[in-house]
Amino acid sequence: MEPSVERRHIDRNVRVHDRIAARYEATHDEIFNEVEQGRLRATLARAKAGIGAGPADGRPRALDFGCGSGNLTRHMLALGFEVVAADVSQAFLDLVADRHAGERVATHRLDGESLAGLADGTFDLVATYSVLHHVPDYLGAVREMARVARPGGVVLIDHEHAPGYWSPDPLRDGFLRRARRFDWRKFLVPANYYGKLRRLLIDPHYANEGDIHVWPEDHIEWDRIAAALGEAGFAPLFADDYLAYRAGYRRDLWEAYRHRLADMRAAAFVKAG
Prior knowledge:
Shape: globular
Strand order of the largest sheet: 3-2-1-4-5-9-8
CATH architecture: 3-Layer(aba) Sandwich
Number of helices: 9
Largest sheet: 7 strands, mixed
C-alpha cells in the first residue's frame, strides 16, 4: 500500500534529522546562545513551579518531546527531573544517550504519529520546544502530550511563532533590517542553493530541514491548541510572547526592542487534579 502523504512527510523528517544530528547545534544560533538558553531555563523553572502536588515517591518525571540534541533535557536534569528524551531520530537519541550516560535519562523512539509506548498519566512535566511545526498532525501530538501528563501535571509548548507573527508589522521589519548582521557563511552551505532553486521552480513551501509548517496559511494555531488541551482537562498556566534572540543580532538593538516586539510564544497548561 502506498504510504500516506503524512507518513511520507514524517519519514522525510526522520531522514533529514538523522543526517543533521551531529551538526544541529552549530546551525541553530537562534536556539544555542546564552540569552535564549537563559530564557528557556527560567521558563522551565516556572513550569515546574506550576506542577500540582503528586506522589512523593522519588524525583519528578519529565518528557522531552522531540528532544533533538537534548536542549530541554539538560535543563530538566539541572532542575531535578528524571527525564525521558523522545524523538523520531535515532541519531539524536544516540547523541543524547552518549551525552548523559550515567544520568537519570532514558531515551524513547517515537513513531512520528503518537506517544505509543508511554503510559497514561505518568509525567509531571511534558515539554516540547520548536517541534510542533515539524508535526503534520500537531493537534494529535498535543492530545498525546495531554494523555501522558498526570493530574496536576504541566504541558509546556515553547518556541513556536506567536499569533501576531503572521500579521504585517513595520516595527518588526525595521528591527530585522537593523539587527541582523551579514553572515557570509550562508553562501558556503550547498543546501541553501538547492533549497532556493526548489522553492523558485517546484515548491515555494519547500524547507531544507524536515516537514516545517511555518507559512501564513499553514502554521500552528494557539487557539486550537488551547481548545484541545481544555477538552483534555487542562487550564492555562501562563503564556509568554517574546522576541527570540539570535546570535547574529546586534545585542543592543535586541535589548531596545525586546519589550516592544514578540515573534515567539511559550505557553503552559496544567491538568486538573
